[in-house]
Specification:
heterodimer; A: alpha/beta; Transcription Regulator spoIIAA; six-stranded mixed β-sheet; 3 helices; globular; B: alpha+beta; 21% strand; Anti-sigma factor antagonist (chain A); STAS_dom_sf (chain A); anti-sigma factor antagonist activity (chain A); STAS_dom (chain A)
């Protein structure tokens, strides 16, 4: 379980990648990852390509991020979800609030 | 006289004998009389030369004849020099020395030529072997005709160009266009480890920046200092909607529409692979949205640097014009226009170009899974100390995943166990109130309180029972906590605005059934393995 973040070359996209499980153990580091979003960042991608597991605490963390960032970014995309995780997001109606790719 | 000067001398009385002696002994210089019985000098000389082959064997005619015609005849039949009878000792000695020197040079040259031939043949053979290995290593890849059209001239491989593509388990389409510095075998060797790493990492669904990082490290370690690999590594998401690319040292990539109009130019961001140390490496990628009308063009410098007979370069502007010269242009069209420009009909050596169509690439998964026929169960009881120091869910999921077929469901099983266990711990054992999460920054506060409460915890127990029932193809979980039970009214709340209760909603969607006991300190979940875990 770990979290890494990287900015795109033009500085407009922040990618947060989560490895292993996405649950409350990441509460602090996840909050920190988006706390530094500045005016230049236009888009946030939560890359779940290496995320095997998530639970409702992860959903809570995602919603908190959405609330915090508000209108300061134009989109938040949750990308590269495995099918079971995508289903969890759909059941929770996250497709209405996030761009799920 | 010659023996006095330490020459070894073999005598022959006629031409026939001379030829025999030549094949028996290693003769360095022939002194040949014109007048001889059986076979005279004029007749013998050409045969001696023929026998000597490629190495220079000097023939010095000894003659009493004085006329020019005879001299000419001597040279004509292969004589290298002549000396008159009676001859001068010093002149003969000088001539022999001069011709011996020439013969030594000729022998040396011949030896070198043979050596060169040997090495040439060996190199040829090695090239053949390597070419075979390369074509096996690089061409066994899957092709994606709808997604990607590429041209890599056969000679390109030995010029260090490579194009790799693969699909990840998540459906993303990855490709890599690389151009190693230099030419020939040396430039091509890096392609083998690079392709291995690429395929292995795509198979794990890693991000392009991770792939670039690994390739850079491997190549930096492997290649000599002056060698590196300019590359573009790209991932198109399964939905065909977004592209991530790491660009290091290749010419600009173009995003064009179906008509070939330029939409966007992507410039190289980084140094080529294999130069920087791991800690200096830059992972930054470019990320952009695409749609099914867009195409991405990537090429090595071979195309723009192609020269015409007038020594002008094909250039980027001409490439853009060619791209717009017809709708949905293919790589073969482009290559033939490059050939037309260069005026060469034959294949130029390193023309590599790929066009990627930004379309969805749905993953086809075979849901056929077989399940173990043996029952399996476990019972785990955690005390307060164990709750403090462990996050047991993943371990339990891994345990269950060893049952044949269950592994495919591990994300769902994790979710069920995680929700049930955390409910039992947070509310049952620790007695925390979910309402906290609704306050300003409550979510974070909640987990701080949880941690504080956990350190204080004494005398508590959570029991987890799992029971795999092969006949019903389901797993029954029972989670019991030592708490006083939590309120059942929270069940089923899935409102997005509320900060809690979401977990319970999820539980009831993912599980086949969820039931609580009277007090609410025991929950039974049944998870059906008949649901295809891959269909979302």
């Amino acid at each position: 379980m770990s979290l890494s973040k990287s900015a795109s070359a033009d500085g407009k996209t922040l990618t947060i990648q989560i490895k292993g499980k996405f649950d409350f153990n990441l509460v602090q580091s996840f909050r920190q990852a988006y706390a530094e979003v500045d005016g230049q960042t236009d888009k946030v991608i939560i890359d779940l390509r290496e995320t095997d597991y998530m639970d409702s605490s992860a959903l809570g963390m995602l919603l908190n991020m959405k609330k915090t960032l508000g209108e300061s970014v134009s989109s938040i995309t949750i990308s590269n979800c495995r099918p079971q995780l995508k289903k969890i997001l759909q059941i929770s109606r996250f497709d209405k609030k996030f761009d799920i790719d | 006289m010659l023996e006095q000067q330490n020459y070894l001398v073999e005598l022959a009385n006629n031409g026939q004998q001379a030829l025999e002696k030549l094949s028996e002994h290693s003769i360095d210089i022939v002194l040949l009389d014109v007048m001889m019985p059986v076979m005279d000098g004029f007749e013998t000389a050409p045969l001696i030369k023929q026998q000597a082959g490629d190495v220079y064997l000097p023939i010095i005619f000894i003659t009493a004849l004085e006329d020019h015609q005879s001299f000419e005849k001597c040279l004509e039949v292969g004589g290298d020099d002549f000396i008159h009878k009676p001859f001068d000792k010093i002149i003969l000695s000088a001539k022999i020395k001069a011709h011996a020197r020439t013969r030594r040079l000729s022998q040396e040259a011949n030896r070198q030529k043979k050596e060169l031939e040997y090495h040439y043949n060996q190199t040829e053979r090695e090239h053949e072997i390597v070419e075979h290995i390369f074509s096996n290593a690089l061409s066994q890849q899957q092709t994606f005709p709808k997604l990607c059209d590429f041209h890599l001239s056969p000679a390109s491989m030995f010029n260090g160009d490579m194009f790799l593509m693969a699909q990840s388990p998540l459906g993303g389409f990855y490709c890599l266009l690389g151009d190693f510095t230099g030419h020939g075998l040396a430039a091509a060797v890096g392609a083998l480890p690079a392709s291995r790493i690429f395929y292995a990492m795509v198979a794990k669904g890693m991000s392009v920046s991770d792939i670039a990082y690994e390739l850079n490290n491997a190549l930096a370690e492997l290649l000599p200092g002056h060698m590196f690999c300019a590359a573009a590594i790209m991932e198109l998401s399964e939905s065909g909607r977004s592209v991530s690319a790491w660009l290091g040292g290749l010419p600009d990539l173009y995003v064009i529409d179906k008509q070939g109009q330029l939409i966007k130019t992507l410039e190289s961001q980084h140094m080529a692979l294999g130069i920087l140390e791991p800690d200096e490496f830059e992972r930054n990628i470019v990320h952009f949205e695409v749609n099914e009308n867009l195409r991405i063009v990537m090429a090595t410098d071979g195309i723009v640097e192609t020269e015409s007979k007038q020594f002008s370069m094909f250039g980027e502007e001409r490439l853009k014009l060619v791209l717009a010269s017809k709708p949905n242009i293919g790589t073969e069209d482009i290559i033939s226009q490059v050939h037309q420009f260069s005026g060469h009909s034959e294949q130029q050596d390193d023309l590599s170009i790929a066009i990627i169509n930004c379309i969805a690439n749905p993953l086809i998964i075979n849901p056929e899974v077989s399940y173990s026929k043996l029952p399996f169960d476990f019972h785990v009881a955690l005390n307060a100390d164990q709750m403090k120091s462990n996050d047991p869910i993943l371990e339990l999921v891994n345990m269950l995943s060893t049952v044949e077929g269950v592994d495919n469901h591990r994300s769902n099983i994790f979710l069920l166990l995680s929700e049930a266990y955390n409910n039992a711990l947070d509310h049952g054992v620790l007695g925390l109130d979910s309402e906290i999460k609704n306050q300003e920054d409550g979510f974070f506060t909640f987990y701080q309180m949880r941690e504080a409460a956990l350190t204080q915890l004494q005398d508590a127990q959570i029991e987890i029972l799992a029971n795999y029932e092969p006949e019903n193809r389901q797993i029954r979980f029972t989670i019991t906590d030592s708490g006083t039970g939590f309120l059942k009214s929270e069940q089923g709340t899935t409102s997005l605005s509320q900060e809690h209760g979401r977990g319970l909603g999820l539980l009831s969607e993912i599980a086949h059934s969820v039931s609580y006991n009277e007090t609410g300190n025991c929950v039974e979940l049944i998870y059906s393995l008949n649901n295809n875990p891959y269909i979302s």
